[in-house]
Amino acid sequence: MSASPHLDHADDVRLTELQHWLASLAAPQLAVTSLRPASADASFRRYFRVDGADGASYIAMDAPPPQEDVRPFIHVAGVLAETGVSVPGILAQDVERGFLLLTDLGSTTYLQLLNPDNAHKLYMDAIEALVLMQARSQPDVLPEYDRALLLRELKLFPEWYVGRHLGVTMTEKQTTALDKIFDLLLANNLAQPQVYVHRDYHSRNLMVLPKGNPGILDFQDAVYGPITYDLVSLLRDAYVQWDEEIVLDWTIRYWEHARRAGLPVNPDIDAFYRDFEWMGLQRHLKVLGIFARLYHRDGKDGYLKDMPLVMEYTRKVTHRYKELAPLVRLLDELENKAPQVGYTF
């Protein structure tokens, strides 16, 4: 980001504190007056770019307590760096106040650069990095992506998408049907092999680097959980859509690469793809709830335009498996749509 938009200090106490903290650092020496917004976030965190006396640029993170805690970010950055993937280095920290100074992985996200000509190369890089990260996974390093957490995420769908966004109060029968679908999904998700899971491994959090591609951001919520989770975040991305044939091709390439790396993926590709799709459905339902919450609770309407694609993913998966037919019917009822003829595997 070359421009330096004016920063309004008038009522921004955190910004003033951050500038004083940056000015107090012995190294690297920073031109604090160059501080400028670097990226927006769906949380309370803010990121600023700042120039150093050495000609390099750096990233300053403002993560205000008590809403945010930088300690998980610091911990996961160390864990992922040890796996060999590209993550920002932490150069200075003030844990109590929620300030970090990071190395700068640039300003070009996958989302900004992706096109049909470069997509294959970029996605192969992202898959290679994902396998590298997963292959170094160990239990008891990151929090468990357990049933309670997976279910808490799923419940965002009825609360925020159905209840607040659609304005529908589900009947007892509908609630029971949805709970049965949740049980089916969770049984599948929890039976999958467990590895390090970034949880938001997609085009907005992957940076295009000159080497060591991709740079990986926004990993502070990483957990130890189902092996297909990050792959489906990457390939069934809420912000960019690819043809089903291409997604299937990339999924198979990941599966082959993961097997060569000794990862415990399902040896049957059809079973693996089913795991991928069912994990994706858990994520899509969660994301619909999160996008609705960002709008209705936090006043962020930028995610509304991404909801139709996530619902399209949701419907396509539910149509493909006969066990998920009750969810098709429920979605039709909630959205007042006539049932469509689907096909099952």
From TrEMBL:
Residue ranges of every copy of the Aminoglycoside phosphotransferase domain listed in the record: 35-262
InterPro entries assigned: Aminoglycoside_PTrfase, Kinase-like_dom_sf
Short name of one Pfam family: APH
Keywords annotated in UniProt: ATP-binding, Nucleotide-binding
An example molecular function term from Gene Ontology annotations: ATP binding
SUPFAM superfamilies in UniProt: Protein kinase-like (PK-like)
Protein name per UniProt: Aminoglycoside phosphotransferase
Source species of the chain: Oxalicibacterium solurbis
Top-level taxonomy: Bacteria, Pseudomonadati, Pseudomonadota, Betaproteobacteria, Burkholderiales
